[in-house]
Amino acid sequence: MLGSCVRVSSLIAIFALVVGCASVPGSESILITEREQVINITIPISKLAIDVPKGRFQFVPVPGALRYAIEPSFFQFEDQARGVRLAGWFEPAARFQGVKDDAQVAHQNVELKKVGKWDVVSYEWTPRQFALAHHSAHLVEGGSWIVLHLSYLSAAPKRSLPEQHALLDEIILSIQISEKK
Predict the structure, then answer these.
(1) CB count in 10 Å sphere of residue 178
(2) CATH at 127
(3) Which domain covers residue 147, as residue numbers?
(4) Contact at 8 Å (CB) between 157 and 98?
(5) Total domain count for the chain?
């Protein structure tokens, strides 16, 4: 009996996910435009756009169903030469409840700080033998809450933790937010 209940609840969860994905309005879907010097990221319902310096960042596709399960406006880029992953999404400003470390795994050396106009949770995570720097950056402006997550990748060229954090700070400072015209 318990096994059939688990199967039914699993089917209901899958159905809810599929229906939820199918009903996501286009106004929350991510729009990414590569320009000469920047990658422009926005969603139709936001007044804001993010400009990431193109450099070596390459778009990393996320399968549609997974992207909608995470967040319809989710985006992800990697700069393999510098060993950095940049991911993020847009939310309505009303959903912002403050900056905090909402770790699903144990973080070390958690620090709340300002990097330019971004509120950042800086931390380290040790998945194997060495620690990796991460920054969760938040900006509330123009009715939108923009969340960026920057990670130093384990396959990257080896850098000290202070160098990893400095690189992530540098990338955050290079990102421009503007009102759409």
Answers:
(1) 13
(2) 3.40.1000
(3) 27-179
(4) no
(5) 1
Q: Quickly count: other Cβ atoms within 10 Å of residue 79's Cβ.
A: 18
- The Cα 70–Cα 180 span in angstroms is 25
Residue 169 within any structural domain of the chain: yes
50 domain residue, yes or no:
yes
- The pLDDT-based confidence of 54 (bands split at 50, 70, 90) is confident
Q: What is the pLDDT of residues 116-129, one digit of tens each?
A: 999 999 999 887 77
Model confidence, pTM: 0.78
In-domain check, residue 10: no
Residue with tokens 């060495």: 130
Is residue 163 domain-resident? yes
Distance of CA 92 to CAs 57, 97, 179, Å?
Answer: 26, 11, 15
Q: What is the pLDDT of residues 127-158, one digit of tens each?
A: 777 789 999 999 999 999 999 999 998 776 68
Token pair listed for 52: 């990431």
